[in-house]
Structures are given as C-alpha cells and as structure tokens.
Amino acid sequence: IALIDQTYPGANSFFDSPARNDGSQKWVDFIHTYWHVDCVRSKSLETFTEHYRNWCKRKGYNFSTLKAQEVYQLSSDLIAVFSKDANTKMLIRQAVAMLNTASATVESLLNISRQGIRSGTQFRSTGFSLRTTGSLLGSTNYSVVSEQVCCSGLYPPQSSGQSLPG
Model-level pTM? Predict the structure, then answer.
C-alpha cells in the first residue's frame, strides 16, 4: 500500500465496500485500472465519469455518479511522487497482484473457518494472526484456523508440532 500511495495517495480509502467472497476489493480493482492519479485527473469529469461507469459495469460494481465526482475531486488535489511511466505501472500492477493474492488467501481461510463452524466442526487457533490493510485488509486481525480439533472427515487434522510465527 505504501508503494501505491506513491502514485495514488489515499486511493485505498476511496471505497468502503467489503471484500467479495473471492477476496477481490473495489479499491484494489480500481488501482489496477487507475494505477496513477493522472489516469483520472488527465480526463475531464464527464470523460472520467463515463469511463468509471463502464468500469463498474464490467467489474460488477455498483456505480454512483456522486462517487465518480468525489473520486475525481479528491484526485485533482493529489500529488504523486512517482512518474506515470511503464516501470511505475509494472510495479503498481505487481503490488495489486500481491494484494489480490493475500486477500484471496484470507477470504479462503475465512470461508473454510465459516464452513467448519456451520458444520459443527471445532477448530483450534494456533495464535497465528494476519494484520492486514484496506477494506477487508483493514485494521482487523483475523485468526487463521490451522488445526482441527474434532475431525469431520472434510479436513484432516494437521499436527506438525510446529507453531507458526505470530
């Protein structure tokens, strides 16, 4: 996120939508497309609004004209540290890919945990937690369920005897 703040400061706070079940987040998808503040402010408000409307439709996000205006206005006041060039774009796209991977992993672990809770399977936390950033990756700590106490047959118990760093 620190890297992304060099090209689009504060963009991770533009949207407060929760993460989807696949881990995707609107602000991260937004940064993949609008990876530099100049990707927004180089357009007129009308052009950006139409582009953002099409982007929301393509990605399956809700569109709001007011949100487009807000993002455009906020973007017009921002100053990027990194230039808008091919190398910076590559770095930001790699950062987005890493965020997407981390978010998908967290959502997958949370879904496994939820399935275990619904099926009555008891899990024991190893004390390992993820400190994350953004909407899903916000200031929330998620305990990662890593060892099954009561085996339901779906997930075999893992007892490596090693504890995860915490």
Answer: 0.64
